[in-house]
Design brief:
Layout (H helix, E strand, L loop, with lengths): L2 H13 L3 H8 L3 H9 L9 H18 L3 H8 L8 H29 L3 E3 L2 H18 L4 E8 H7 L14 E7 L1 H4 L5 H12 L4 E6 L8 E4 L3 E7 L5 E7 L2 H11 L8 E6 L1 H5 L3 H5 L4 E6 L9 H14 L3 H20 L1 E7 H10 L1 E4 L2 E4 L2 H17 L3 E6 L14 E4 L4 E4 L12 E4 L2 H14 L5 E4 L1 H22 L4
Parallel strand pairs: 2-3, 3-4, 9-10, 10-13
Antiparallel strand pairs: 1-7, 2-5, 4-8, 5-6, 6-7, 8-16, 9-14, 11-12, 13-17, 14-15, 15-16
Helix pairs in contact: 1-3, 1-6, 4-6, 8-10, 14-15, 17-19
């Protein structure tokens, strides 16, 4: 009931007026008066002043005849004289009529704003998911929580990974999303590659990936407080019809109903912040194993010379004001001295990142962004050669990412794996305010699948293997050229 209807009903009850009497006075059928009182309807704006003036006269006469003015004052919290009563009743009706008109106008605008959209045409569906929805996520100027039960692997395979990788939100976007593990674990590795390139293309978004076995029939995307998309899929699991709902109340009802489908036991990998990553000693425990795979996408922070350790610790302590990280670096120094002497280590390094490291010396050691000086880079090369000679289980695999057509620009996340634990690191997060620092992989099956995939890269055409002997031969042939490039980089500053 609107404010006008509430006041009108109060006046009728206070005076005991019959609707038929009011009908005779104002010249409107009883059904209209009843609707004004009970069904949120209002008199026409053109006739409202005359109607309100006639009813005010009637109600004032009844109140005075019943000597009921005190009850009127109490009911409407006002003081009024007998002479001003009719005018007071009229203004009471007039003001509440105006308020109800404003409320009705607002409600109509909301109904128009929240009007759902039904997408049935293939072009409309494509444009919505590839253009409108990503732009909506950017336009919301607040942190967003998103649920998506649709399979991310199929989406990544069917859509260009770089379609809107240039769109970077200025606020956190946290997405819980389903994964079809039968596709993810397929022997051809298409699902695994698609998922890796997907998170690289959307490196500014925090994803939690869930086995979608219990949610694969829901076909729902929900942005909490903002929009819900309910999808009907065809036989190829493509969106055939999409219903887009904007009413916040309904959106959040759908969110609450969908959230329980994302169960903790089904979590495969999740975006992880620095504190969460260190609070249980994850990183130091990670290096207690003896068989490692590292895919490095920025610089080369391993096999560092002794001269660099103190500098990195000092940078953490003095520049970053992070005593905790300085301690982590010191602990890793002790741990790594034994690891590099005898353990099996496979280093996969992008050719482009090696060239960049030669040019600018940037590494991210633990969480310390550090730029190696030209002299430190030369010492680093010499230390790599020495340690590789002392441990035949150290192997280097240089990936020529220029041969990876249409995907070389989508390799940002580094991979750190000991075949029992695996995490991904986002170097660009250290230069921006959005996106995850890490992804922790929780599924043992997924860890083993990624391990096997990295093993398979060794024989790829775009991958060149270097052991200690071939690495020394490369150094003997090109070492002076590399050193001149490093010296030249000093003049670019």
């Amino acid at each position: 009931m609107n404010a006008y209807g509430t006041v009108l009903k109060q006046l009728i009850q206070l005076t005991g007026s019959k609707l038929s009497t009011i009908s005779d006075v104002i010249g409107y059928d009883v059904s209209y008066i009843s609707k004004w009182c009970n069904k949120s309807m209002l008199p026409a704006a053109k006739m409202a002043p005359e109607i309100n003036r006639s009813m005010a006269s009637l109600f004032a006469q009844e109140i005075l005849s019943q000597e009921n003015i005190k009850d009127f004052e109490k009911a409407f919290s006002m003081e009024v004289s007998s002479d001003d009563l009719e005018n007071a009743v009229y203004h009471l009706l007039k003001e509440n009529y105006s308020n109800s008109c404003n409320e009705a106008s607002t409600e109509l605008k909301q109904q128009t704003t929240y009007k759902p959209r039904i997408l049935t045409l293939a072009n409309d569906i494509y444009n919505f998911f590839n253009h409108e929805l990503p732009q909506m996520l950017l336009d919301y100027n607040e942190s967003l929580d998103v649920l998506c039960t649709l399979d991310v692997c199929r989406f990544a395979l069917d859509s260009p990974s770089n379609a809107y990788s240039h769109l970077t939100p200025k606020h956190p976007v946290n997405v819980k999303i389903g994964v079809d593990t039968t596709l993810l674990y397929d022997d051809n590795n298409q699902g695994l590659e698609a998922l890796y390139y997907f998170i690289n293309a959307h490196k500014a978004i925090n994803f939690d990936f869930y086995d979608n076995t219990l949610m694969r029939t829901l076909n729902t995307i929900v942005v909490k407080d903002h929009v819900a998309i309910l999808c009907a899929l065809d036989q190829y699991n493509r969106v055939n019809v999409a219903s887009v709902i904007f009413d916040p109340e309904k959106v959040n009802q759908i969110y609450v109903r969908t959230l329980p489908s994302f169960r903790t036991p089904d979590l495969l990998a999740h975006a992880t912040e620095q504190l969460e990553f260190y609070q249980h000693g994850y990183r130091t425990d990670f290096y207690t194993k003896d068989n490692f795979q590292f895919l490095l996408t920025l610089g080369f922070e391993y096999l560092l010379p002794q001269e660099c350790w103190d500098k990195i610790i000092q940078t953490a302590r003095e520049r970053d004001k992070d005593e905790f990280m300085a301690l982590i670096v010191a602990q890793l120094q002790i741990t790594w001295e034994e690891i590099f002497e005898k353990n099996t280590l496979d280093f996969y390094v992008l050719k482009s990142s090696l060239m960049k490291y030669i040019d600018d010396g940037e590494i991210i050691f633990a969480d310390v962004v550090y730029h190696m000086t030209p002299e430190e880079r030369k010492l680093h090369i010499e230390n790599v050669l020495a340690l590789a000679k002392g441990n035949p289980n150290i192997h280097f695999y240089v990936i020529d990412d220029e041969q990876l057509v249409n995907t070389q620009h989508l390799i940002h996340f580094a991979i750190f794996n000991n075949r029992k634990k695996l995490f991904l690191k986002n170097p660009e997060r250290y230069h921006t305010d959005v996106g995850p620092y890490f992804y922790s992989v929780l599924s043992d099956t997924l860890v083993q699948k990624i391990s096997a995939y990295l093993d398979s890269i060794r024989t790829a055409d775009y991958c060149i293997h270097y052991d200690a002997e071939s690495l020394q031969a490369f150094y003997d042939k090109y070492g002076s050229l590399v050193y001149r490039m490093i010296d030249l980089s000093a003049f670019k500053k």
